[in-house]
Amino acid sequence: MTDMEWIGLDWGTTNLRAYAIGAGGQVAEEASSGNGMGTLAPADFEPALLDLIEPWIAARCRDGTDAVPVFACGMVGARQGWCEVPYREVPCPPVAANEITRVPTRDKRIEMHILPGLSQRAPADVMRGEETQAAGFLLENPRYTGAICLPGTHSKWIAIDNGHISGFTTYMTGELFDVLSSHSILRHTVTSDEWDEHAFRQAVEEASAQPQRAVETLFGLRAAALVDNASPETCRSRLSGLLIGQELGLASRYWSDKPVALIGSSATVPLYAQALASRVISVETVDTRAATLAGLAVAAAKSGAASHG
Amino acid sequence: MTDMEWIGLDWGTTNLRAYAIGAGGQVAEEASSGNGMGTLAPADFEPALLDLIEPWIAARCRDGTDAVPVFACGMVGARQGWCEVPYREVPCPPVAANEITRVPTRDKRIEMHILPGLSQRAPADVMRGEETQAAGFLLENPRYTGAICLPGTHSKWIAIDNGHISGFTTYMTGELFDVLSSHSILRHTVTSDEWDEHAFRQAVEEASAQPQRAVETLFGLRAAALVDNASPETCRSRLSGLLIGQELGLASRYWSDKPVALIGSSATVPLYAQALASRVISVETVDTRAATLAGLAVAAAKSGAASHG
């Protein structure tokens, strides 16, 4: 581990993922834990990190080299995180060298940096972590103009203008699916792990053409189960399709007549790609891990910690 | 209690409300319990009812009169209720004498009837109980053409054409507010029992003019709390206003250029009335209890159980 140049952290609400980056920019080691921001008090962050990376820095520091730089993105910089790092306001490039916050540590073998999230004033919106993934995508596409979409619990649609973020919108699509299917009357109607691809696609089509259809027909899922004996897998797939279609329809100003980059690793990413394929200039899909690592490398390079990038 | 002609029941998911109706149509006695449909197995319904009305029928039956007719509306007729009563399909009048289901009882002192709910085929929708309240309103307004709205957990908008129900839509407005404010990330943002009337009104106005604004700006409530220090009461009132405004905007085909009758007793009813006032031909508000009693009286009269009605 003596050739480790820096450590990258993707530190979200539920997980901490750490990557030891070697001199060639390659991932030398990686490790993860469930010590997400959501479970930690401020004093717990440094121990939680050391738990994970101790073997890497122990090996390196026996050689007497300098402290290892660590770059972290995500909710670690939130108000409830290790240290609140103020948002940078859009429009702006996704990562800026002079706005990466150095956080003091008790352990002098590490030099901790947290990347700021981004905020938008009107309409009010925020992100923490997605800006780093956007930076990772833009590393290979520095003059990109188009949309970046990160589907998920809180889907982000980001407008990119010549490599800069000009605006973004968060849709609570994944969380709406979760709360409706777990806590609303629809929970009785969507009790299935099976999938009805046809019902999903039809619902995406309906709701993306007419986004208001989703809210209008939510209760209709229950009614369809009662009156038409619609199956739980049909209702579940249709609920998912209505909510994703609603997001796509509402976000059309982001993707209409533009290229779209989807960053994500979940099973929904191909569904987004499929739904958009015929309606946008181009769709490409980038893996979350690759985008995050590339974005952290941008931060490390801008800070002079990486030997190249 | 010897002049009791019939008993009316409003038997929903969470409560059972019983009314002893005298010869003049007046409420002689009333009682209620938490024995809603949601907590009862099929065999529990009759005992739960007798628990509540035993004193009334005991007094009456000492005189050796016939069994007392009981008319019930609501979820008592659902698949998980006392006895599943098939939906009647719209278009139809809200209550029809020949479609009230007689349910056998072990106790021969009562003659149990359950009013059917209504279904709509396309788009699929259902109601149980609201049709009885609509019938109660129409008793005084037999030729009514316009909208009836019952705001609530599952708000109903009902189109009435010359006293008949021509169609309806259910909006999960109240339940969306509940699941979002209790189970989503917004729960951190809406922790207040206070009310910001200005924020509420502004949100109703925004979302009723552009219903898609609600879904677009949900996450923005969290962002406004983080970035603009929006207070919990402002965010809570705004969440409520966005969802009610969304419902009003989507339901505009029901109320636009028409009279509207609001049936309800919750604190949200005046808010609906206020939001609609300047945009519809007329708005009147009818109390839930009065509408339900009048609707049950329609059923009793059609079945020959009531001496007038």
Number of domain modules of chain A: 2
Radius of gyration of chain A: 21 Å
Order of helices and strands of chain A: EEEHEEEEEEHEEEHHHHHEHEH
- % residues in beta strands of chain A: 15-25%
Approximate shape of chain A:
globular
Query: What can be said about the biggest beta sheet of chain A?
Result: 6 strands, mixed
CATH superfamily of the largest domain in chain A: 2-keto-3-deoxy-galactonokinase, substrate binding domain
Strand order of the largest sheet of chain A: 3-2-1-4-7-6
The most extensive contact between chains is:
A-B, 40 and 40 residues
Number of strands of chain A: 14
Oligomer: homodimer
In the CATH classification, which architecture of the largest domain in chain A applies? 2-Layer Sandwich
Average pLDDT taken over every residue of chain A = 94
Quickly count the helices of chain A. 9
Examine the coordinates and then state which fold CATH places here, giving the name of the CATH topology of the largest domain in chain A: Nucleotidyltransferase, domain 5
What percent of the residues of chain A sit in helical stretches (DSSP H or I)? Answer: 25-40%
User: Would you state the CATH class of the largest domain in chain A?
Assistant: Alpha Beta
Protein name (chains A, B): 2-dehydro-3-deoxygalactonokinase
Keywords (chains A, B): Kinase, Transferase
GO molecular function (chains A, B): 2-dehydro-3-deoxygalactonokinase activity
